[in-house]
# Entry
Amino acid sequence: MKKLVLNDRGSVTIEAALSLSVLIIVAAAIVGAMATMAAYISAVDIAGAAARAHAIGVEYQPPRSDISVSVGESAGLVIVTASVPGVIGTMSADAAFPAEVGGQ
# Structure
C-alpha cells in the first residue's frame, strides 16, 4: 500500500515561493510594457521632429545611433517613419509635415 502524507509541514513555504515567483514575473512584464510604451512615445516624438526638420530643409540627426529614420516626400508633404527598438519589439511611428516651397 501507498503511505499517505498526513501533515502539511512545508506547504506554506512552497506556496510562498510559487507566489513570489509569479509576482516577480508579473512585475517584470509590467516594467517591460512600460519601457516599450516609452519607446513608442519616443518614436512619435522623433518622427515629428524629423518631419519638421526635413520640411524646412535641415538635416535631422536622431539622438541615438540605433534609431532608424526614413524620409519620403509625396504631394508636398514630408513623410517620416521612425523606428525605435523597445524591450518587446521595435516601435515605429509615422509623421507628415508640409514641405517648405520656394524661398523663405
